[in-house]
Amino acid sequence: AAYKDGSDIISLSLGGGGWPEGPSAVACSNLVKKGIVVVAANGNDGASGLYTAGTPSLGHGVISVGSIDNWNNTGSAIDVVTSSETKRISSSLAANENIPFVFDPPTQIAAVVDSTNSSEGCGKISQDLKGKIALIKRGTCTFNVKVVNAQAAGATGVIIYNNVAGAMSPSVTDTSVTIPVIGIALSDGQFITTALNGGSASVKARKGDIITVPSETGGQMSSFSSYGPGPELDMAPYISAPGGNIYSTVPIKMGSYGSKSGTSMATPYMSGTIALLKQAFPHYSVADITRVLINSAKPRTDSKTGKNIHPFWSGGGL
Question: Which pTM was predicted?
Fold first, then answer.
């Protein structure tokens, strides 16, 4: 339909595992041959390592996009109240979750310990969480499992904190979930955990209260961003763009604005960049545009080693 409408650029924030011979990848490859720029998300399976790039981004000539963390995190502000201080932190409402995280007056936080003696909430939670907000660490199982277990234990809300540096946006799709869920940065989760170990902590959150804070992983590759190469050893991704913790529009029922993460957010950013490039140089072919983008990108460096990130993770760079 986009081709029939005469689109110059097609932006695809979708995909999954596959091969360049997959139907969606072939369709996109055919569009590229017709001179249309096709931009597609490389995938969000970076935690699984190499060969996690998905279709249709693997289509020949398709500009596959990896994700880089935003330099600032904008999200709903929550006040964490401890015995010694009150800390205001940024949070992200769970993707596909339309229940607002509002707690005013403050509500007590409880650190989860599941049946496997873990703080990840993947096993049955026997502690009584009635009237409390469950604090759960990311990892091992899906966000759905964690939230369903906390809800079964009586929790009125869930805070999931990252297991790597930086902020995160959990995705909760289980329709049985009736309590609000947010994601916060690892450092903020550790702050709450320390407060709970030394006494108690509660959270106060009001609707429409927004905060912007510097990101501790700003400019770095997003931990979720998928790796190449493609299954036929093609380069993937081609390039990377801001996609981690992007504050933008969401459905009105979810608050109208929110912070989300994914190569799905990096892809439209790159598509807009290409539109400006194509406007400035209308005679450029798809290959010309791809070449210019990759050659002018800034390589990313590993924050720990200081060495350049491999192109199989970042493509040409930012």
Answer: 0.85
